[in-house]
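Why do we bother with holo predictions? Because pocket geometry can differ from the apo form. Keep that in mind while you read this record for nickel (II) ion.
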Amino acid sequence: MVKISFIGHSAFKITGETYSLLIDPFITGNPVAAYSDLKADDILLTHAHGDHLGDSIEIAKNTGAQITAIFELANYCTEKGVKAQGVNIGGKVPFPWGSAYWLPAAHSSGTPDGRYGGVPASILINIDGKSIYHAGDTGLHYDMKMIGEFYKPQIAMLPIGGFYTMGINEAVRAAQWLDCNKIIPMHYDTFPPIKTDPEEFKAELEAIGKECIILKPGQKVEI
Ligand code: NI
Ligand code: MN
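The structure, written out:
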């Protein structure tokens, strides 16, 4: 059993049988953040923007968690004095709990000090036999079809807020291309420009036979 806990925005904690990991832990300055425990073995980052890098450095310092991110962003984290490993698009990255792949996203990436953060990414996580896809910040892109064909994730977190990422209509198509039947919407309602109605997304997914799991920050689902 793997637990997926929504912290809010694009931040999640994933808890497997022995290990746990955080994705894009944006807490400080996140008006919706809700969580019970930020302790984890690993922190996985999709890209360098403040609402994704978030509190990673502080959490890594306080807990000893290792950060894994695209090379340029990992270097930034290492300079801040925490343990970080740099990866890139497409390679299998082994972890004690399974493996992960950093895969394409259509977006940008810059560190808080204004440097290039490397390419933005999505992340496919394999933990305790479950495959979980976090799309990162992204517009609709056709690599999602490749990811569906090649990896067929069991559950996917997709941004639906629009403005900085794809919105509901594009995310419905993304779910189809990913060949994924369980979707958790993310990256909406945190700030005024990304306000949207997740119930509309849910209705559109249900109309094509897919399950939409709307989590409020602080809620979790088991898969
Ligand atoms: Ni971003
Ligand atoms: Mn974002």
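The radius of gyration is 16 Å.
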